[in-house]
Design goal:
alpha/beta, Rossmann fold, seven-stranded parallel β-sheet, six-stranded parallel β-sheet, 15% strand
């Protein structure tokens, strides 16, 4: 038996992809492994409500990620618990931490050329935080026993960037939520395409908005674009782009849509359009396919890896290319569409949170000789 500590302060769907990753990892590990001992660090919101088996111990660690407090207080908590291995599910490993750990690197987005358009911070604060980010990221990569990544695309960039031995990095494909239901969704005029996710600049929604306007100049009927995204400074920028493009008649900004209504929003669409310039995995595309719609995606390396032949691909830097893919989806006959969706659903069913949890447990075992299979 071994003692495994999991820093789950980002647990919860309000923390987007990271939160969903932790929700599913904890759920599956708690069913999978009854022999090893687990310590889980949680913030106050989930500390009382999260029920776990007897071999799990909850520890309150109500400090925000990327904060000064986590740099000093998290190592003290971990030292007190004295685990055999610690799992940080994000790169924010405290610089002073000297214990044995593995880390999950979800993407290499912040290593792309970034700028002030990608932040809400004043310029001096942004550049100081960029320096801090690099220091923390470098520490996480170099000091870890093993690195978990969600795709070979991320592994390749990470290996080259840091000159790492390939066997230090383990690819653990993520799963997707199969409980997304088909309850009634917000009313959107048909036909419509849909995008669900955040509105950060790398999501490339400006090109998508240009594409829906191009499509409407060619189509003999009005075609809509429904965008579901939590309201923040970046969605406000999207509103300005819609106005400046004169696309108000075609774009419907829906705000945040909960999981129980996403299935119907996906299913009733012509297709889910994913114009992102950079991703680590591509979870929303899998959810869309599983809900019964077509997937239209950027022809970037990671999407080709994850979606294979299940998507209609386009050049994300070319709004005409996006519009052409949308035209293709609209022109597809009913039988061809049904066959494409059916084949795609069979393909994406290979992705599983259960499999991801099993592979993560193997990584715990590989990273500490004291661990035994659970």
């Amino acid at each position: 038996m071994a003692k495994i500590l999991l820093d789950a302060r980002l647990y919860g769907l309000e923390n987007a992809g990271l939160g969903r990753y932790l929700v599913n990892l904890v759920a599956e590990l708690s069913k999978l492994d009854s022999k090893n001992e687990y310590v889980i660090l949680l913030r106050k919101k989930y500390f009382d409500s999260l029920g776990l088996p007897d071999n799990w111990k909850k520890v309150l660690a109500d400090w925000r990620h990327y904060s000064f407090a986590e740099q000093f207080k998290i190592p003290k908590i971990i030292s007190k618990e004295n685990p055999d291995i610690t799992h940080f599910p994000h790169f924010n490993v405290p610089l002073s931490f000297r214990g044995k750990f593995i880390v999950t690197i979800h993407d290499m987005l912040m290593h792309r050329k970034m700028g002030l358009a990608a932040t809400t911070l004043p310029a001096p604060v942004y550049f100081i935080k960029r320096l801090g980010y690099r220091a923390v990221f470098n520490h996480a990569v170099k000091r870890s026993q093993k690195i978990l990544v969600p795709s070979f695309a991320v592994k390749e960039v990470l290996t080259e960037k840091y000159n790492l031995e390939p066997d230090k990095i383990k690819v653990t494909y993520e799963g997707f939520d199969r409980k997304i239901s088909n309850e009634s969704a917000p009313k959107v005029p048909k036909p419509y395409f849909v995008y669900v996710g955040n509105a950060y600049p790398h999501k490339n929604l400006g090109k998508l908005i240009e594409a829906i306007k191009i499509l409407n100049t060619k189509s003999n009927q009005k075609v809509f674009l429904a965008i579901s995204s939590a309201r923040n400074i970046f969605t406000q920028r999207i509103e300005r782009i819609v106005r400046s493009a004169g696309a108000e008649d075609f774009v419907k900004l829906l705000g945040f849509i909960p999981d129980e209504k996403l299935g119907a929003l996906y299913k009733n669409s012509v297709g889910f359009v994913f114009p992102s310039l950079s991703e680590g995995f591509g979870l929303p595309g899998l959810e869309a396919i599983a809900s019964g719609t077509l997937l239209l995606a950027s022809d970037i390396k990671v999407f080709k890896e994850i979606y294979g032949g299940s998507a209609l691909y386009f050049d994300p830097n070319d709004s005409d290319s996006i519009a052409t893919a949308m035209e293709t989806a609209m022109a597809m006959g009913a039988s061809d569409r049904a066959e494409k969706i059916s084949n795609s659903i069979r393909f994406v069913n290979k992705y599983s949170w259960v499999k991801m949890a099993n592979e993560t447990l193997e990584a715990y075992e590989e990273s500490s000789h004291s661990l035994r299979p659970g």
